[in-house]
Amino acid sequence: MKRFFSVLLCLTMICCMAGCSGVKATEPASNVYVIGFSQVGSESDWRVANTRSMTATFADDPSYELLMENARQQQENQFSAVRKFILEGVDFIIIAPTVEEGWETVLTEIKEAGIPVIIMDRSVAVDDEDLYLTNIGSDFLRQGNLAVEWLEDEIPEDKEIRILHLQGTIGATAQIQRTKALEDAVAKHANWEISSQLYGDFTEAKAYEVMTAYLKENKDIDVLYSENDNMTFGAMRALEEAGISYGNGGQVKIITFDATREALQYCHDGKINLCVECNPLFGPLVKELIENYRNGIDIPKHVYVDESAYTTQNITQEFVDSREY
Ligand code: AHR
Q: How far apart are CA 153 and CA 151, in angstroms?
């Protein structure tokens, strides 16, 4: 109790001193531009790299403060985070949406509060595009088409193939567009068949679980089309345990999305056939867009980041080692 009173006395003295001095120790809040950032989660290595790019970009500049909330892949958590940002009176909001649908109400609330918004990474499906300033991220359909074009070159017209499709979070732009590219291509090629679509939620653990169960009954697979690297890693483990070979010269050709360093290494080593890049490092670009907005410079409604695709034939070990994520 005695200790409690002395702590209380100290705190009171500190508060009085701060009051007398006008609390000059920190910058007035109005000089710092506060950004609320609702991130999807930490489901993949891509996501971790994206979070790091965002936090490092703004941490380097004391005129900004980035408040990040991790939604743990739940859209409901994103709604709560955004409403908290509105109550706190942030200057700007960035949303990396888990799924495309369901954003109309909360985006309208942000608009009514007069806060500008950037939609980052994935997209939102809303009728009124004025509900956000810009959408920056990947062209996921182009990524899927790169994969499909590669497969078209690999497979002769007279060879029948069975494609096992591992899907990410259903309703996320990355899933919708990568799936569309594959389904459209399968509709065009009479010799291509999707043997099954398994739900892997963009995580290694889920992909391992569904693949292990699937492979107990089905082993007839020619191609694995996996919508991100982490699911691919889980699938590779399941294939190994089932005694099925994969990669260059193996039974199953593997197509993966993201092209993280670990996947590129597997690709270089011949274990993955194609890595389609999904670039997560757009923190600096997001900051530039915010600065342009603050300076009254017009910003485009959609900004795509640069991306390519890699095979064993076109990457070197040096390139793999230089990968930032
Ligand atoms: O939206 C980008 C996707 O989300 C990446 O492909 C994936 O790894 C992440 O979780």
A: 5
Task: Note the Cα 188 to chain centre separation in Å.
Answer: 29
Per-residue pLDDT tens digits for 194-231: 999 999 999 999 999 999 999 999 999 999 999 999 99
Alpha carbon separation from 85 to 69, 88, 92 (Å, rounded):
10, 5, 9
Going through the chain in order, the beta strands assigned E by DSSP cover 33-39, 64-70, 92-95, 117-121, 134-137, 161-167, 192-199, 223-226, 253-258, 274-277, 302-304, 309-310
Whole-angstrom Cα distance, residue 12 to residue 122?
49
**Mutation test residue for ligand 1: of 54, 204, 278, the one with most atoms within 8 Å of CB:** 278
Number of Cβ within a 10 Å radius of residue 133 = 20
> In the chain, what are the domains?
33-137+280-294 (3.40.50.2300), 140-278+311-321 (3.40.50.2300)
Residue range 98-115, pLDDT digits in tens:
999 999 999 999 999 999
Ligand 1 mean position, distance from CA 216 (Å):
28
How many angstroms is it from 236 CA to the middle of ligand 1? 18
Residues 6+ apart with CB under 8 A from 284: 53, 57
Report how far apart the first and last C-alpha atoms of the chain are (Å, whole number): 52
Closest ligand 1 atom to Cα of 173:
1
Express each pLDDT in 149-203 by its tens digit. 999 999 999 999 999 999 999 999 999 999 999 999 999 999 999 999 999 999 9
Residue type, 68: M
- The best mutation among 39, 45, 46 to test binding of ligand 1, ranked by most ligand atoms within 8 Å of the C-beta, falls on 46
DSSP string, 298-314: ---SEEEPP--EE-GGG
Is residue 131 within 8 Å of 155, Cβ to Cβ?
no
Q: Measured from the CA of 202, which atom of ligand 1 is nearest? A: 10
